[in-house]
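Write out the bound-state structure for zinc ion.
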Amino acid sequence: MELAKNRGYVITKIFREVASGETLAARPQMQQLLAEVENGLWEGVLVMEVERLARGNSIDQGIVSQTFRLSDTLIITPAKIYNPSNDYDEEYFEFGLFMSRREYKTINRRLSAGRLASCKEGKYVGALAPYGYKKEKIEKQKGWVLVPDEKEAEIVKQIYSLYLSDEEKTGFQGIANRLKDSHVYTRKGNPWTAAQIKYILTNDVYIGKIHWQKMPEKKKPKNGQIVKMRYRSKDYPVFDGLHEAIIDADTFNKVKAIIDGRIKSPNNTMRSLQNPFAGILVCSVCGRPMKRRSADKRRPGHSASFDCITRNCPTVGSPVDVVEAKVISGIKQWYESYNLQNRGAEKPAPVYNDNEIKNCKSKLTILKNQLNTTFSLLEQGLYDKDTFIERRSFLKSEINSVQAVIAKLEKEDSLKRSQENYNKLLIPELENLLRIYDNLPNAKSKNDLIKKIFYQIRYTKTTKGNRWRPDKVDDFELEFISRLPLQ
Ligand SMILES: [Zn+2]
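---
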């Protein structure tokens, strides 16, 4: 505020981040600020240090610096005014962000190093003691140690002995159920889950071990945001803890052997794809994929079917062979009408906008240079403040309209190009599909081919048809959504 007062800036809005998040995703105020900067709402943004604008990873920093650059927004600190569209300032700015990221990492690393040292000494560094233990401060020393919690430790022992007593019948869920029956709940007062039981049975904290980052936090992009997730990592350092074991090593290893054997044996993730329309055939009412259900062998006359499994969706399913036949004949029809429209007559080769785009781009370069020189003209006194502002807003609107023209021309070209590709590559592929479909070895190869050409096939059927109403069995409609971009 002092800076603004001294230099005569008008402060219109203040953004205040309550939590100091590491990533942009965790900084809602910063996101708001960026959105407004992007829309050119502000001439400049005041911060104490540029480092305040971006921590996180280099992608976040790229977003920040690009947003300021593209919108020609100044970053004003007490020490310096950065103009991100000036190359030199931009370098300087990005360097500042880079340094702040390193600093953040160093702090984190230092913290981690301290925690690792504690682990090596057998101390407990986690926030919450594992079930069965309490955390106690070590006397006259830094750090915490685990101490068995009498009541909880008893439950842990019970879980291990239940698992070993009749492990054939008592799985993780079975143990959870038994605990519930005897009114034993988790620390939060909830019924135990199978996953929690498994975690207890596989956690070697109970034989006196301490782990360094047993489940390290990993950052993963999800829906465009970075979320933190915990994965069970396989090779984490293990140390001997200062704490007392609750379970003896022999019992623990017996349990481990059973669990390892049980988990490794049946591998059902390798089941092959059964549905040639997986991910393509969707219900037209609710938009969800149609599920392929296998035939029920116990019911004579029952056949595999495609059904919408959304609750209360009015869509009626159909037998797999009927749908498959109709999809193929539908693709044939689609292909014939496409051919008639687009390939029947010899079409002239498409003309691209390359030259016009080139002209626009050189125009854009000139305008951007002019925009950059407005600052020096102002500094040299050749422009007064009003001329400066007027000139800049004129140039900016020119730049915007040239950019819009370029975008339009490029879009036209990309449409022509994809249409050409479609004719050149996908149509022969489609012809191929129709020829060999019946001989394809499995559902997956069918699926791969159909996916290349169609984005979706929408299924509509709301009339019931079955063995008693055979005329209604194939009374359904299919709509083919091709990958060809719409004009
Ligand atoms: Zn549905």
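---
Confidence is low (pLDDT under 50) at residues 265-270.
The first helix runs from residue 2 to 7.
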